[in-house]
């Protein structure tokens, strides 16, 4: 039985080692809220709000998530007793969307649940792998800088390379990369920077043998994506368009994509992530785990999730040192030759450095 008694929210801001730019946003300082839940047996679990400070990727922000957590979701959870984190979906049903706020608390309760069951989060979720393959994302910057980064990460052994593209710099950069790395497992994320008027342009990308193109069209669209997919040989992968397993069902039915990127934050948590994973498995749609420039708490959740059977494509899971000077968990999360072992220890399998967290937190809010 789980009875959450106390929840602590740590608000931190960390400077990224290198700013991250996509076609829709630019991040230099990354705000995060880290969520620690403690239950009536004194067991603790960790989660993370992965929303950004402003609503450029989805409509949620760090501030909306703080409000939702403090004023609505945490009071709801504290008043309930439950057996399994899956039950949170019923408890949260009355609250529309706000997936990242929900996911942060739900993820912390999954960690706590796994610890109470004495198993790793991977085992609790039904994971089948003891290591996962790592991919890396290269944000928009000068061509030479992007090539330099790809070269370095390639030498480090990363298994999949995602670049950010927009109509302003698509063909040229893909061509440049292909000249140097003809066989690189390469994909491109457009973050909705195209419309159906760009079909001819996108068709030209087919010649470069990309693994997939991620979210070429609008975030709220699955109809135009189906039309586009009919015209492209490059598989479309949906990111922003998939907020629930129902969205995934409809997108699969319409033929809007051939791959889905699952980010637990975007879809409201690990339970929904699992549902999407299972549905995709049934329909032979491979999935991979997307990143959110997160700390190692969310990274640890992603590693556990990516150990499920249908995560057959390396995700955006890279070493924590890719973004951060200091890791907030022990041991540090590191990709070695493009792989990370899935921890066997209970829960997320990494110890959160609470002293470090307290020393960098701009606010600590305790709710009971
Ligand atoms: O976590 C990472 O390493 C990068 C993640 C990443 O590429 C993204 C995170 C958040 C918003 C985006 O522009 C982008 C994405 O759309 O997938
Ligand atoms: Mg994306």
Automatic annotation (TrEMBL):
> Which species expresses this protein natively?
Metabacillus endolithicus
Gene that specifies this protein: menC
Q: Which Pfam families match?
A: MR_MLE_C, MR_MLE_N
* Protein purpose: Converts 2-succinyl-6-hydroxy-2,4-cyclohexadiene-1-carboxylate (SHCHC) to 2-succinylbenzoate (OSB).
Q: By its UniProt entry, which InterPro entries does this protein fall under?
A: Enolase-like_C_sf, Enolase-like_N, Enolase_C-like, Mandelate_racemase_C, Mandelate_racemase_N_dom, MenC, OSBS/NAAAR
Its EC number(s) = 4.2.1.113
Q: What is this protein called?
A: o-succinylbenzoate synthase
Going by the entry's taxonomy, the superkingdom of the source organism is recorded as Bacteria
Outline the extent of the Mandelate racemase/muconate lactonizing enzyme C-terminal domain.
Answer: 143-235
**Which residues are noted in the entry as Mg(2+)-binding?**
189, 214, 239
Its needed co-factors are: a divalent metal cation
Q: Which UniProt keywords apply?
A: Lyase, Magnesium, Menaquinone biosynthesis, Metal-binding
What's the source species' lineage?
Bacteria, Bacillati, Bacillota, Bacilli, Bacillales
